[in-house]
Amino acid sequence: MLVANRPIAAKSNGMTNTLLDIRDIHKSYGDVAVLSGVSIGMEPRQTLALTGESGSGKSTLLHLAGGLDQPESGQVLLQGRDIGTMDDAARAKARRDHVGLIFQQFNLVPSLSVAANIALQARLAGRHDADFCAELADRLGLADLTNRFPEQLSGGQQQRVAIARALAPRPALILADEPTGNLDEDTGDAVLSLLLDLVSDTGAGLLMVTHSPRLAARLSHRIHLSRGVLEGA
Amino acid sequence: MNMLYTAVLSLSSHWRHRPGQLAMLAIGLALATALWSGVQAINAEARGAYDRAAAILGQDQLSRLERADGRSVPLADYLALRAAGYLVSPVISGELRDSAGRLRILGIDPLTTPEAAQGPALDSDDFDLAAFFTNPGLLLVTEATASGSLPTNLPPLAIAEDVPPAAAITDISTAARLLGQTDPSYLLVSPTQPFGLPAITEATELTLSAPDTANDISRLTDSFHLNLTAFGLLSFGVGLFIVHAAIGLAFEQRRAAIRTLRALGTPLRTVLLALSLELALIAFIAGIIGILLGYLIAAALMPGVAGTLRGLYGADIEGILRFDPVWAISALLITWLGAGAAAVQAMIRTTRMPLLAPALPRAWAQASGRAIRLQALAALALFALAGGLALFGQGLIAAFLCLAALLIGSALCLPALMTAALKILPTRNAFSEWVLADTRQQIPGLSLALMALLLALSANIGVSTMVGSFRTTFLGWLDQRLASELYVTAADPAEAAFLMEAIRDDVDAILPIVSADQRLYDRPAQVFGIIDHPTYRAAWPLLAQTSDPWDQLATGNAALINEQLARRENLSPGDILPLAGGLPIVGVYSDYGNPNGQAIVSLNRFTETFPDAQPFRFAIRINPDDAPQIATRLREEFGLPPDAVTNQAQVKAFSIDVFDQTFRVTGALNILTLGVAGIALLTSLLTLANLRLPQLAPIWAVGTSRATLARVELLRALGLAILTFVFALPVGLALAWVLLALVNVEAFGWRLPMQLFPSDWARLFALALLAAGLAALGPALRLARIPPARLTQIFAQER
Amino acid sequence: MRLLLAFLLTLTQAHAQGFAGLGTQADGFAVPTPNPNFTFPEDHGPHPDYRIEWWYLTATLQGEDGTDYGIQWTLFRSALTPETSSDWTAPQLFMGHAGLTTPDQHFSAERLARGGLGQAGVAANPFRAHIDDWQMASTATNGDAYNALHLSARGTDFAYALDLTANGPLIFHGQDGYSVKSAAGQASYYYSQPFYTVTGTLNLPLGDVPVTGTAWLDREWSSQPLSEDQNGWDWFSLQFEDGARMMAFALRSTDGSSFTSATWIEADGTTESYGDGRVTLTPLDTTEVAGRDIPTEWQLIFPERGIDIRTTPINAQSWMDTSFPYWEGPISFTGTHTGRGYLEMTGYE
Questions:
Q1: d(CA B104, CA B164)
Q2: What is the mean pLDDT of residues B771-786?
Q3: Cα dihedral B466, B467, B469, B471 in deg (nearest 10)
Q4: With contact defined as beta carbons under 8 Å apart, do C302 and C262 qualify?
Q5: Would the CB atoms of B264 and A63 count as touching at under 8 Å?
Q6: Lower CB count within 10 Å: N or C terminus of chain A?
Q7: What is the mean pLDDT of the segment spanning B236-260?
Q8: Closest to B647 (Cα-Cα) out of B674, B672, B676, B624
């Protein structure tokens, strides 16, 4: 079923069918250079693990890829369009239309029910599909929890809600920042399996930040960031 | 639209989750709206009453002809003007008063009243015109007047609109009979006069006075309404403190949700729009509640206001509130404005909030030390302004500006003073050191609520000191002034003369009480005539005098004036009063509670000047032991009604009653403001309670029980309230001084010595502690019962 | 203060000459009875025991250039009770109306007053009727007090002062001054002095105008209001070129019928009265006046005197804009006879 639901194709300008094309970006906080000339390319449906030590700049790179932050130089082409130079409203639109975000802290809205949290981004994007949301909830084992509120859920359950929320608008790209970082190992493994299955089934690309080589190994591609520079890409 | 709708729903789900916070926000908005709009409703109602009174008989549009000496216009003068062709219309006005009540009578001649003199319609189908014109006549009164206390033996009443409160409009023939007066009190002059006549001033000796647009009453009562408005503004401001705190709390708790929404692709402006829409809706509902509350408050206070206005200014308003939609709409707009103002800070923080979360939530109201220093500097500037206004300011507005500068300045310097005070407090051990340091850290967050408390407390101290000083002075003055043992009111001057003659030999002295209305310096005033008697010399303390003022007064060629007149017209002994051809002023006496100017001349001079005015009241000096016997004799032998003979104590009791009535409204507003300040404190403490958990958790972790922490929280709130009270006391006294020395002089024309009432302070202190204790109790109890897991969680989150 | 409609109703209904001869002494007022026996000068003065009374003078005038003018001077008395007073009490109310008509303008003014204190009133001997500075005062040195009058009135935009001299006797309408006004027998006391010649001055906004002409004084009093179905009247006073005079009126009923009455006055003062139906009054043309259609041209047919005339107003807009408004102005007529006169019409809504 899910395989048939192909991601919304970007309005291609015909130049490329690359999903994400990061070209020579630089970013620093104050005097500290965080990223120095990093370039990454991701094809559609690709899953890419981004590893590195704490402070290596991997979260910053992820934020730039999702248009949550802007680079000082270089380009962030999401489906061919440079989101690095867009204004706040345009980046927000690109995000809600094409990107699903999964955070280490889950970042659910505490006053909304599980169902409302799952549907949140899809609704914002004007693309809410109740059946699809129900299916996601079912696949993620949340079917009996949809009326609960986040504070009533375990960490693993909360992260599964976050995954469902990210997938609900059928984004072309999922960005996940240490999605299992707040979970114990077994739960984390289970959650990651679900995430990978769903990404594969929906045809989205996945860029996942992790500090764990073991988890990184489960993705199709891996890159390592060290002091703001890519190694062994 | 879809996105905005989703954003609004997501954000506002917060309130469903925290109904208590929503209630707080709504209460703050509703209270602010209620107190402000209530005061506005009262003012509007009273002003409307003055306008209606001013418009009655077209006084605001028609010129009048009057005699320069204030006496009535001779009938022959009126008839001569008519016979010469001039369109003038007679009015006989006066007051009927007996033990049962009082009623102002306006006798008009509907056959000649100019069209501009809008009066009650006399041509409706069911109106008995013949009864109006013929004996016994009809008195047109409003419904409210008809149900009030009226004199006995009145002609039949008919209910009509467009009649001033406590007054009756009737045919001039009825007025003439009731008031025993044939000559018109004044003539209304039609704005258009017939063809080919010379100017009316060439045809008569009478004085033509221009239409009275700003009438005497509204001039007199301006100060009272300014006073109410100031209170309303204060309450509104204090209410907005609550709103500000509630909105700040909500912002803080939704910080993560807002960030998530933005991360998921909601543009900033959509978030701001959603927040604004949500606030507008809440403000709308709270505003409606506030308007209803305000109407109830105003309706409840209205009789008191009516009492105040009558007691203090002799202004008649009905004590009934009408509902005015314009008022309701403007109150709603004010609510929106206020909510917007209170939300500005939260909105700015939302705008500036980075999309990427910093690790920790910060206290939303955390003001830096720099901000506190800036506030203190602003406070100093405001104090300087207040001082300058006190020394050099002129007029009521300046006096109120001085008050405002003083209050705002005090509020602004409160955080700095608090911080300083907490620094110099001694500490005994590490725990108390932590408590003090922690308290200092909280001051920025609590400062707005504490400022509100400071304002409410100092306003309370100031106003109660003013009222108390006034009351004490007034009572002392009454004791002195009411020196006679008995006061007698006869039915008419003839009876008075007869009674005075009959008992002359049995009493120590008889002091006739006789007065005439007379405009002095183009304002209403009264002139009294007195005989030369030691009672006056003893009982009338003079504030300023020439040598032998009483001897000079006795010659008939001198006058005493009251303090109000002296201050208003800048008169002092030696100046000439424009009365009876000009009389030198030989003394100024205090005359509290009287809105108008007053002058005293000798009885002989009075009789010469006002031959028509005859005394029908007199006071009796007698050995106090013999007073009851004489009183009984007057009632039984001469058949005077019981109320016609009153003793000193009764008059005093009546005066004190009028006085207390006068300040009842002020007292009520005072308490309301304090209540609002208490709620503001509660809101702020609730806001801080959650934010403070990270600071409390380590203290708990190192071995302080939750109960102890809760006790500390409670004691801390009490301690802050005590400190606030300590600061409020001098501010309140300064406020009282401004009220007594500046506002009263400008508003009423008298200056009162300031007295201190420590027992009032003690009561207020207890009230402040109670308010702070109640406000802190809830958050403290919650802290005492907080699950340890929440505290441990904090360590996890802070990792 | 809106005006006293009840007062006006009393007056206007009375002026509609609908005084009930129903024999009741309503509210203690006297009612007219047949075969009156007038005594003068007393009856020139007021009759406070009757509810309603007036001194009603109209004059057709010409300026030196031949321009036509007309004036009206009326003092109405209306009693609330059949009593008099000398203080503010008001059993007797007075209303003055003054009108001045030119070919293209019409001025009107109104005054109200109570009677007790002297602001308004009527004295029989010497005769003087006045309200404020308006007056009609006898200047006769011998004979009837009405033989010579001085007349003055003043509005906000006009004034006049006229001297009148009578060239004939008083005449009495109906049966020796007992004038029946309806089929039901309602009546009033009614006599006139129709033989005045006039000289004087009109004071107009553009300047003073000396005038001469003729005038007609009506005296009438009664107590009973109109019967309810009578809603207006048309009243004519006519002066023929041969010196004869004529009075005619029609009282209109709501059912469209009317009650007419007429008095023929020879140049020497001999009169003959004609009851209902002898004179026919027919509107020929209307003019829009103050928002209503007023019949300003009339045909008057009086077969017994061979009269068939058509009347035309000097100014069709002769509207008395008073508390109770009506049309009153000078007219001229042609046909079997020519001459001038005055027309009053009330009750046109």
A1: 9
A2: 83
A3: 160
A4: yes
A5: no
A6: N
A7: 79
A8: B624
Could B129 and C7 be called an inter-chain contact, meaning their C-beta atoms sit closer than 8 Å?
A: yes
Please tell me the distance in Å from C233's CA to the nearest CA on chain B: 24
Q: Where are the domains of chain B?
A: 1-56+225-358, 61-211, 366-477+655-799, 486-621
Contacts 24+ apart (CB under 8 A), C158-161: C158/B195, C158/C100, C158/C107, C158/C109, C158/C202, C158/C203, C158/C204, C158/C205, C159/B194, C159/B195, C159/B196, C159/C202, C159/C203, C160/C71, C160/C98, C160/C100, C160/C200, C160/C201, C160/C202, C160/C203, C161/C200, C161/C201, C161/C203
Coil, strand, or helix at residue A100?
A: strand
Hey, what are C8's tokens?
């006006």
Q: How many CB pairs under 8 A join A and B?
A: 82
**pLDDT tens digits, A81-100:** 898 888 888 888 899 899 99
Closest CA to C46 of C218, C291, C209, C221: C221
Percent of chain A with pLDDT over 90: 31
Closest CA to B764 of B789, B728, B799, B710: B728
Which CATH class name applies to A45-58+88-231?
A: alpha beta
Is the omega angle on the peptide bond into residue C126 within 30 degrees of 0, that is, cis? yes
Chain A residue at shortest CA distance from B351? A88
Cα B723 to chain centroid distance, Å, stands at 30
Q: Quick check: C297 pLDDT over 70?
A: yes
Which chains does chain C touch, 3 or more C-beta pairs < 8 A? Answer: B
Mutation target vs B (from C7, C85, C88; most B CBs, 10 A cutoff): C88
CB distance A21 to A75 below 8 Å: yes
Q: Do B79 and C158 touch (CB under 8 A)?
A: no
Domain boundaries, chain C: 5-345
Contact C90 B118 (CB under 8 A): no
Complex ipTM value: 0.90
The domain segmentation of chain A, as residue ranges, is 45-58+88-231
End-to-end CA distance of chain B: 40
> Which strand ranges, in their side-by-side order, compose the sheet holding B207-209?
B157-159, B139-141, B167-171, B101-108, B88-98, B186-189, B63-66, B207-209
| Angle between helix B664-691 and helix B648-662 axes, rounded to 10 deg | 40
Specify the DSSP class assigned to residue C196: E
CA distance B7 to chain A (A): 7
* Beta-carbon contacts of residue B115 (< 8 Å; ≥ 6 apart): C1
Most confident of B1-15, B212-226, B744-758: B1-15
Q: Where in B558-697 does DSSP place strands (E)? A: 559-562, 576-577, 583-589, 597-602, 617-621, 645-647
CA B700 to chain CA mean position, Å:
51
Q: pLDDT value at position A9?
A: 39
- CA pair distance A140, B305, nearest whole angstrom: 68
**C vs A contact (3+ beta-carbon pairs below 8 A):** no
Q: Report chain C residues touching chain B, CB-CB < 8 A.
A: 1-7, 80-81, 87-91, 93, 109, 112-114, 117-119, 132-133, 154-159, 203, 205
Q: Is the Cβ pair B134, C155 closer than 8 Å?
A: no
Q: Do chains B and A touch (3 or more CB pairs under 8 A)?
A: yes
Best CATH choice for the domain C5-345 from the list 2.40.370.10, 1.10.10.60, 1.10.10.10, 3.40.50.300: 2.40.370.10
Q: Which band of pLDDT confidence, cut at 50, 70 and 90, is reported for residue B359? A: very low
- C337: which 2 tokens? 């006879």
Chain position carrying tokens 């986040």? A150
Q: What is the pLDDT of residues B63-93, one digit of tens each?
A: 888 887 667 899 999 999 999 999 999 999 8
- Name the closest residue on chain B to residue A67, using Cα atoms: B263
Which residues on C lie below 8 Å from B133 (Cβ)?
80, 89-91, 93, 114
